[in-house]
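Cross-posting from the chemistry board since nobody answered there.

I work mostly on the small-molecule side, so proteins are not my area. We synthesized flavin mononucleotide and want a rough idea of how it might sit in this target. Sequence and SMILES are below. Is it possible to get a predicted 3D structure of the two together?
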Amino acid sequence: MKDLVVALTGASGSLYGLRLVEVLIARGRRVHLTISPAAVEVFHRELDLQLKLDQFHPEQFLLKQDPMGLNALLGALKPLPAPNARKQAIFGSPEIGSGQLYYHHFRDYSAGIASGSFLTGGMVICPCSMGTLASLATGQSQNLVHRAADVHLKERRKLIVVPRETPLSLIALENMKRLAEAGAVILPAMPGFYNDPVSISDLIDFVVARICDQLGVDHQLSKRWGADASQT
Ligand SMILES: Cc1cc2nc3c(=O)[nH]c(=O)nc-3n(C[C@H](O)[C@H](O)[C@H](O)COP(=O)(O)O)c2cc1C
């Protein structure tokens, strides 16, 4: 199985990115992670997590406090782990898979993922800000997120962009069109409601499931439409 690249940027929806990393690790994948400085601000605002980009450690992903009741929502209703199990998921355990997480600083252009010769199974930018979207659409490589995405496009590898903004300006729409034409998959953070979601966890997993499908990562995060019919 090839390594995967995940980038977290400064759009709202940090939980999508956190859950994605967790699921990929739990599925035994090697994940190369890079984080933009703006994502740090959003993670702090939305999840009360303080990511330290100069001294990153996966422990920083553990939800400590619970200002929005997220642990209860995530832990009680779905197999999305409460902090202890989440720790296991992030660090890997025999029961749930043993992927590995490699962190790369956003200024580290010497990282493997900055080069086309480093083979990967694809890259996801989740969530993706409109700023990063614009940088990708115009081929700017001002940080490792942009550079790794550019590499995926030039090598014709899967690049999945998960934009979050509303409403969308014409500029954002045009940037998405440009990226789609260049081969990227535009997969907006737009959960569906037809599977009767009962928690934030269900909505998050709806989007993460679609990302996993694009990456070819096996999962049971959400019910598949039509699955009931095919089993009878
Ligand atoms: C709490 C918070 C929420 C934000 N939400 C969004 C958002 O949903 N979409 C977006 O495009 N930008 C959002 N921004 C603004 C971006 O973080 C900002 O444009 C930043 O420069 C993006 O940088 P990056 O693309 O390098 O991460 C948000 C900023 C903050 C502080």
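Reply from a structural biologist on the board:
Welcome over. Reading the output above for you: The radius of gyration is 17 Å. Confidence is low (pLDDT under 50) at residues 72-82, 92-97. Happy to explain the token format if needed.
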